[in-house]
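Problem: given the chain below (315 residues), write out its structure.
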Amino acid sequence: MTAPLLDATGLSKTFALPRTAFQPARKLTAVAHVDLSLAPGATLGLVGESGCGKSTLARLLLRLAPVSAGRIVFNGQDITSLPESALRPLRQRLQLVHQNPSAALDPRLTAAASVAEPLVIQRLASGSALDDRVRQLFAEVGLGPEFLRRYPHELSGGQKQRVCIARALAPEPQLLVLDEPTSALDVSVQAQMLDMLAELRARRGLTYLFISHNLAVVRQVCAEVAVMYLGRIVEQGSAEQVLGAPRHPYTQALLASVPRLHAGTVPTATPSEPPNPANLPQGCPFHPRCRLAEPACRTGSPPPLVNGLACPPSS
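Solution.
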């Protein structure tokens, strides 16, 4: 069996909330006891409502934020507590593509300079070799040489995202974390971007963690899906299992919330807003919104559903 490229165990992130005149000092758990594993070449989709902790989890996996508890192993090496000096050589293997390409690009740099930046920082290329490498990266993401000297304000949204992807590919990563990479793009541009990402993965043997709230996109891109709710993974398995025959009520509600031209026999979407993450209910955090909640759900929290195990928990 192939060893995982990335393996996270019991991963948690807690933030301290300041004391106010009306509230004592509290803690907010943004990520709670997450287990996540990515095999080399895998495509894992991470889905859930806005504010559920998807981006925070991505930052933890990339060691862009300190871990409160748990363990992260990348390529056989425990990186949970590595200092920045030891992390720096690993940064080129772990790359992030942001949701908003306009915010991710420095407006003072040309597109070529933005793509060259990681190569210069990591001392991977210089001089004419650097110029050649940047041109090659532009060609890989479908941008011609006429875009090299353009500034971000001279590019469309799709062109900016292609520059961001080229920059992420520059240091030859093994893992790409794509945080809502197509949400700011038109539908037609989204389709082109997804096709390009699929080609890049096949050509380079990349591993993707694809974060999105668009279930149709996740179904198209990802072989596996993990569903996140209030910092917890509640269901995980193949895309066919999770999106085709979901078992957890929250996953069912997510699918029911997708707009349809014709109503079908799908479960009713959750009728209320999620609870305050700083004041979670006892037991399963989803039970106040769950149409299938039982008394056991108010006292015990079920483990994540992996490939269709039963829910709710037994008392």
